[in-house]
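Hello again,

I reread your note about wanting to compare the complex against the isolated chains. To keep things tidy I'm splitting this into two emails, and this first one only covers the full assembly. Below are the input lines as submitted, including protein chains and any nucleic acid or small-molecule components. They are followed by the predicted structure of everything together. The single-chain runs will come separately.
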Amino acid sequence: MKNNKITYHSLKYEMLNLLANGYIPFFGIVFPIFMMLLISYAVGKDVPADFTQLVMTKIMVTMMMIVPLAITFLGHSSIYSEELEKQIPQRLDMFGVTLRSQLISKMIVQFILLTFAMGLNYAVGFMTLDVYTPNAGDFLLVNLYFYLLAVSLFILGHGIANWIRRHAPAFGLAMALYFSFMVLGGVMGIEVDDFPPVMESIAKIFPFYYVQSLFVKVWMGKEVSIMPAVQSLIFFLALALLVFFTSNLFHKRHRIGFGQRKEVTR
Amino acid sequence: MSHLNINARQVMIVHEEQTTPAPILQAIERITEMINIDSLDVFYGRYHALTIDRPIYVEPGDRVGIIGSNGAGKTTLIRALLGQAQARGNFSVALPPHKIAVHMQQNEYTSVLPIKVIIERIIDRPIAEDTFIQELISFFDFEKNLKKRYKTLSGGEKQRLTLILVLYQRSPLVFMDEVTSGLDFVTRQQVMELLVDWFAESNQTLCIVSHYYTELEKLVNKIIYLEDGQLVDWGGNQELFRKYCGKTVLMCENNVTNKALMSGYKPMAAPDHLLAFSCKDAAEEASMSSLLRHHDIDYRRTSNDIELMTINAKKYWESKV
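Full-complex prediction:
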């Protein structure tokens, strides 16, 4: 009997599966908070008092980018590629738990955890750092950007796992991209304003660049055009969808994958 | 071992009534052939993995052993019937793939979660609220494993977990591929005994792939014998035994003394360590038995030895090919 439903047990299973896999709690919850506190402490001493609030806000908003990167991208591609390597989705599908139900359950718990992790980051940031308090509209806009980024990253991570279907290479590629995206977003030591021209040109293609260069200003209530960020987000989403759909096409062409059962009757 | 006081077929019908519309249920009840193959060819790319060119049919309630050497096409046949391999031909399965319960060779689950969480995910309700899963867990003596993680289970426990979940599906048609592979002798026998007990009380149709013929003898009533991707023969156990071995066979140790003693009888193909003699009638069997007993030779009589049947069937098939 096929079970397409999203239920308490499907969500409980996927949530425990996420939390038990170590990567996500560390990279998605502990690491961003640790980085935010470490960098704010290291930088804070040298910042003139007039600029403290700007710098601390920039650190908090920029570090927030790590959360969707770690949870919906690195975490999902890591866990799902391992499951595909062991053919767990196929096994569950044979028990009637459809791939659709598995995928939707995964996505829901990813976004529940993402919300929790972002909330925790904000709570720690507001309690420990002297950050600017945004108005509700700006706060929602910045976080809408993070959620859309998380959706794109989930699709990309899923596509990578589905293409490769082996944990080690998929995790290696996802980890390389994870650090590359963080560098392009100005998280890894060099701020986006200090990028060399060539690197800046590359960084502007991807939506991570605009978190620090644009959405920190949105957070602080400044009038800025977010069109470049929207364009890069659309480009990134298209790229993710391309990887996702081609991974399905590739496996359909090369073998009958899970969920692609073929009935031949008389 | 606990006894299951429930007829699996009855449970299946109750389950089907809860979820399946009446016309479909009636259609399942009316099925006269679970599997019907007139012809079947499976290709992996250009590799021709399996050819079946003679009709095979499996009736409801049949227990079919699918046997043959490694690479014979046993798993390929199951995958073709499940629609997981690209197959051509004229064949049908009475149920769509998602209504068939399947125990494949590789059955992995997430290694980091307690078994209880995995089971509840699959059955989509708490174990405490489902008497059928509780009885299966008890039948397979699995209670103590519910809090363990999958990676900490032994090979036998892992197989039992999948068996519980496969049988929970209450499907009229069950495929099992190498259920006991990788298990030690004792565990293998335990798992097979549990299966024999279960299917003794159920009229589910079973197609099981196995290399362990002695254990299959207790479980199956039909055999599909494949070699090199081709069908050697198929039919009832007794029917195939009589076809290739005769009514009864007497077997004794293969040594010089026994060879000399039995030189008046023509030996048939048998495992290297045995001498086997087909008895064409009761008189010949009595004569051979008497001779062996008179010389105090240990011997065994069989009318249903799958291994002996396959050796002789293969010899005949190879001579034809």
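For quick reference: The longest helix of chain A spans residues 99-128.

B.
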